[in-house]
Amino acid sequence: MITVKNLTFHYRGKNHLYRDFSLHIERGGIYGLLGSNGIGKSTLLKLMCGLLSPDAGEVNLFGRRSRTRSVELLSDIFLVPEEFELPKVTLGEFVRLTTPFYPSFDHSFLAEALRRFEVGMDEEFHSMSMGQRKKAYIAFAMAAKTSLLLLDEPTNGLDITSKATFRSLLAEWATPERTAIISTHQVREVANMFDHIVIIDHKGLVVDSSVYEISERLKFSVESSADGALYSQSTLGGYATVRENVDGSESNPDIELLFGAATTAREEIIRILNPSTNH
Questions:
Q1: Which of 172, 202, 232 corresponds to the end of one domain?
Q2: pLDDT (tens digit, 9 = 90+) per residue, 72-95?
Q3: Residues 6+ apart with CB under 8 A from 96
């Protein structure tokens, strides 16, 4: 569905964010895109939808180059950036003007999402709080029912109840034919929704694995000692640890611990999770 091949990109006057970077994302599922601040997660989402063009290499969506931004392509992808501007109109007017661009738009889904987010169609964007605008835009994005939904820090600015609503709506939105990519620092708020984890750093791709593969190859547990662990954090019960799963035991992946391990034990994590990948 998405193929990033030998991507090189930099902003003018700055060092390269990506150099010979490759990634493949299959159709279907919810992907978590993780990385430190400034590593290029938002940039990668913009490259995927053609808002930016690579210096070298290719980004293809549905077999088309994203940089072409054809009508067919744009009608089947939706990006919700972390920060955005909306016109000085009511939500209802925005829906009337914009839905023709999305042939699969689901008005009943939008109405239900707005009801649960407690946002009215007659509210004007400029009079909404930042959280209300974000809820309205996320509801619209999901209702567009595009094959690809790109969400950059979607829970920033949402209260606890709205975050729970977001998770439930995204679960209802998801189908085997739709793919969501969530770039976030608020890992715990959405980690249980991820089917696949992608972690990038300044050298490139560190993790590109399904949650099942992670649980199969790594062991997450709380122990009295962190000796020999790939990564650990102190807890009230001892140490939360990440280790290579050598005994075939089952554990639920802790994505925050995985990110810590990918940062501090990069080569070991690559060896365990991505043994066939050339980094």
A1: 202
A2: 999 999 999 998 989 999 999 999
A3: none
